[in-house]
Amino acid sequence: MTHYLNFINGQWCDSHTHISVINPATAQEYSTIASASVDDANNAMLAARQCISRGLLSDVRPAVRTTWMLDAAKAIKEIADEGALALCRENGKTLADAKDEFLEAARYFEYYGGMADKLEGTSIPLGKNYIDFTQYIPMGVSVQIVPWNFPVSICARSLAPALAAGNAVVIKSPEISPVGMVYLVRALESVGFPRGAINLLCGKGSVVGSHLVEHNDVNQIVFTGSVPTGQRILKGAAERATPSVMELGGKSAAIVLKDAATEKVISSVQTGIFFNAGQVCSAMSRLLVDKARYEEIKSAVVTMAENLVIGSGEEQADLTPVVSQAQQISVLAMIEQAKKEGATILCGGYAPDLAGYYVAPTVIEATPDMSISQQEVFGPVLVIMPFEDEQQAVKIANGTEFGLVAGVFGEALNQTLQVAQQLRGGQVFINEWFAGGIETPFGGVGLSGFGREKGQEAIYSYMQTRNIAIRL
């Protein structure tokens, strides 16, 4: 069993206390990691502040940052297999998905590396006797709180644009599933980023995470996680007017129109809600089906779900475990609450008789007002319901406090696009759930948060605009 460390100011550091990392497929301890203290957090923030104060990132020619970023992408690819095995064992996801996560992380560094030397300001005409122009300058010290469901790719999603823009970063990894991020930072360690530019801490969120976001040296907060935690962070950020990017929860709906292609719907349902055991903020949580197709689609969805192979990520099973016992208990409790409210369990709804933290693929017939239709489950649980017409479908889809993503399935382009444009959310998929990619902006409205990650738009969240006006 391997013991992992924190990374502060270019050094790997141990601590007096450790955190156990559990393999959710076996419910057994997989490894340990140093539990960062408040002192460790202060040291990391000091290192990041000194990096910024000395201009070690911002004062170099931007093309130098581009070189570092592209070298980082190459280094991440080289350790993808080794890192994927660790991520699979600590997180539960399949080996293939874990490797894809490292490759996606590498792609973030390639993509934003290509932007580092193209962040150009503008010249503003003010008349003969003036020269006026804008500059993009880095925020400074960016504190980034990373969740456990996609720790490597989500870390890279915010780390890469932050570094490309010239910021120093202090990362708080999740107590659950922190090891893959160690492999990511190991890859970045050797490619030329200056000391203090990247700092990685694993510690209790209530102690280390809270201290980091309230630190006097923080210039920006990037958070992905639950709504209650995000709200607590925002209250403190508001007092100090700290710029923040918040990617919170979701209860996303897919609308299946009368002319939708069945195979496209079923394929997207399998990916949309059962990928990563449903532990995806943008999961297809609700499936709204035209009443003319309801029985057909419902039957096909249940058949697909009942035929999924349940097992560990190392076995490349169709449905892997949820990340922890606490998560398993939470998901099963929400299913039981749905039963009490009168929902019908069409399949699943139980914990299989396996050693790890599994929840059977679950499909629930429910009404829009039930808690299972309103609250984020973060597990392999799909809510399905019929609708009478498009107006009702849109009303149901938009009828939660969330607004992260949504989807429409139908073959008539005009109709599907008209429905898509009425949906509340930062991203809408048509005929394929999770369409898009690193190049497409991602983020939500309402309780799903604000700000955008991914795409060219994201990098501007990591910079401020400065205007300089000169009287000749």
Automatic annotation (TrEMBL):
Active site residues per record: 247
Key word ATP-binding present in the record?
A: no
Q: Tell me which species this is from.
A: Pseudoalteromonas undina
Which branch of life, at top level? Bacteria
Q: Oxidoreductase: is it a keyword of this entry?
A: yes
**PROSITE patterns to which the protein is assigned, alphabetical:** ALDEHYDE_DEHYDR_CYS, ALDEHYDE_DEHYDR_GLU
Q: Which residues form the Aldehyde dehydrogenase domain?
A: 12-468
What are the top taxonomic ranks of the organism?
Answer: Bacteria, Pseudomonadati, Pseudomonadota, Gammaproteobacteria, Alteromonadales
* The entry's keywords: Oxidoreductase
Concerning Pfam families, the annotation shows: Aldedh (PF00171)
Family the UniProt entry places it in: Belongs to the aldehyde dehydrogenase family.
Q: What is this protein called?
A: Aldehyde dehydrogenase
Q: PANTHER family, per this entry?
A: ALDEHYDE DEHYDROGENASE-RELATED
